[in-house]
Amino acid sequence: MLDAIVAEIDVREPTGDWRADLRAQALSSRAVWPRHRWVTDFLGARPTFGPNTLRDIDRSLAALDGLDIDTATAMTILQPVSTYVSGAVLRELQEMQTERGETNTGDPEFQAAFAAWQQNLRAAGQSDHFVKVLDDGVDPDSTGTRDERFEFGLDCLLDGIATRLTRRPVDLPERS
Q1: Can you tell me the distance from the alpha carbon of 22 to that of 155, in angstroms, rounded to the nearest whole number?
Q2: Domains along the sequence of the chain with CATH
Q3: DSSP per-residue letters across 12-63
Q4: Structure pTM?
Q5: Predicted local confidence at residue 169, as pLDDT
């Protein structure tokens, strides 16, 4: 069943732009996994080696062909991208579950209790940076910024990989 879901992920033939290829795959994976919420127990586990998974791994490795790196380094590059996507999807699914349960946020009693909590937090003077988050109206779990937050993190990760690749071979892990 997991391999059937993997078939829904768009892992295109390599274009010669490894970053664009891995980014597109990450975005597609992020779109697919939440449609099958039961897979959360399997995200991040060792992959099943069905035909779709093998196709995707092969294409992902092929996307890195032009980098002049060994196979172990290629796998070392793919793992954090996969881990980032899995972690982000799990976090977003938790956010969605919390949103479904938040039915009392418009309730005057809830609003009063929340305002009192914020006032106590301000008075304690120990969480000034977090209080600024509240004062600025920043919701780190907002559905409106979910895509932007995911893509920002993904781009930071890909930027970091690209930077490490320019400092090769000293900075890349050795494999035996």
Answers
A1: 10
A2: 2-101+142-166 (1.10.357.10), 106-138 (no CATH)
A3: PPP-S-HHHHHHHHHHHHHHHGGGSGGGGGTTTSPPP-SHHHHHHHHHHHHH
A4: 0.81
A5: 58
